[in-house]
Amino acid sequence: MTNDAATISEASPCQACGACCSYSSNWPRFTIEDDADLDLIPAKYVNDRESGMRCDGDRCSALTGKIGEATACGIYAVRPDVCRTCMPGDPECAMARRRHGLPILAATE
Fold first, then answer.
1. Residues 6+ apart with CB under 8 A from 81
2. Helix, strand or coil for residue 7?
3. Which tens digit of pLDDT belongs to each residue from 36-54?
4. Nearest Cα to 25, choosing from 54, 63, 66, 51?
5. 105 touches 89 (CB < 8 A)
6. Of 34, 80, 81, 93, which sits with the fewest C-beta atoms within 10 Å of its C-beta?
7. How far is CA 89 from the centre of its chain?
8. How many CA atoms lie within 13 A of 45 on its CB side?
């Protein structure tokens, strides 16, 4: 890991990961968002059924970067609730990281 990647990992383990954003095309779904919140998400990132984020395979189309190294969300400020509730080290995080061969993180509080 380079010094830049180490700095990213220490600042936010999510920015050095992205596994949850590329786990399943069914994961970045819309759940309890209201219409006003959903209207803030650019249409190019919403799937054809308008039920979640558009994906390229299993990867959310709003995700940039390389999984496990350095990633970012192109719509972080308006991301869906399911994205907001996934926390570093929680069961969903562990499942996604395992799928990508990344070490499991300790849960945060």
1. 30, 31, 32, 33
2. helix
3. 999 999 999 999 999 999 9
4. 54
5. yes
6. 34
7. 13
8. 23
